[in-house]
UniProtKB/TrEMBL annotation:
Broad class of enzyme this protein falls into: transferase
Gene3D superfamilies, per database record: P-loop containing nucleotide triphosphate hydrolases
Species annotation: Kibdelosporangium aridum
Protein name: Thymidylate kinase
Family annotation (HAMAP family): Thymidylate_kinase
One GO CC term, this protein: cytosol
GO MF term (any one): dTMP kinase activity
Keywords per UniProt: ATP-binding, Kinase, Nucleotide biosynthesis, Nucleotide-binding, Transferase
Coiled coil spans: none
Catalytic activity: dTMP + ATP = dTDP + ADP
Function comment: Phosphorylation of dTMP to form dTDP in both de novo and salvage pathways of dTTP synthesis.
Gene Ontology biological-process annotations: dTDP biosynthetic process; dTTP biosynthetic process; dUDP biosynthetic process
Length: 210
């Protein structure tokens, strides 16, 4: 049985770069790796509805915290069987954003903390009701909010309403820190996104967990 390793962090924190480097490091160690990223824009109708909502194309849908949480969760549920197959066939299943992203962003929208009602509601929805596999390890790539915003602003695409909201991003960063601090859902490892990582050592530790 493989290990489900999740990379979390703000938009612009460098999750994609970290993921690519970790895949190379895992493969150098002889580990078989599968990758996933959420939301699955262009692949999942629920992810595309998320995109439409966040860009103002679904009326007031984006105003509903619980409604958006359900759309994000259903996107992951659509990949559930593939995730389970990959966990059977690969040593590491590496995921860019997962259940904690939903908890962090929706709690931040409601001005709740890591102990807030919405955090537990999302856990019950995604794990208990939808049956998504629980991560074995979660990596929080922590960077200053202003640095993440600068990186996100340079991307060649239109930023969505979550990305444009600096206050939301600041609260979300605090939520991620809180979730990591209490070990929500699975053990967390916090990485400083401003410094170079020793990917070989990090991959060694994650493979050793298996």
């Amino acid at each position: 049985m493989g290990r489900l390793v999740v990379i979390e962090g703000l938009d612009g924190s460098g999750k994609r770069t970290l993921g690519a480097a970790l895949v190379e490091a895992f493969q150098r160690r002889g580990a078989k790796v599968a990758q996933h990223a959420f939301p699955r824009y262009g692949e999942s109708v629920h992810a595309d509805l998320v995109s439409d909502a966040l860009h103002g194309r679904l009326g007031d849908v984006a105003d509903s915290v619980h409604g958006m949480a359900v759309l994000f969760a259903l996107d992951r549920h659509g990949a559930r069987e593939q995730l389970l197959r990959d966990l059977e066939n690969y040593d590491i299943v590496l995921v860019d954003r997962y259940i904690a992203s939903n908890a962090a962003y929706q709690a931040a929208r409601l001005h709740q903390d890591e102990h807030g009602e919405i955090v537990e509601w999302i856990r019950q929805l995604e794990v208990d009701r939808l049956g998504l596999p629980v991560p074995d390890r979660q990596l929080l790539l922590r960077v200053p909010v202003d640095l993440a915003a600068t990186r996100a602003a340079t991307r060649d695409r239109v930023r969505d309403t979550y990305e444009k909201d600096g206050g939301l991003q600041t609260r979300c960063a605090a939520l991620y820190d809180g979730l990591a601090r209490i070990g929500w859902l699975a053990p967390w490892l916090v990485l400083d996104g401003r410094t170079d990582q020793d990917f070989d050592q990090l991959s060694k530790a994650l493979v050793a967990d298996a």
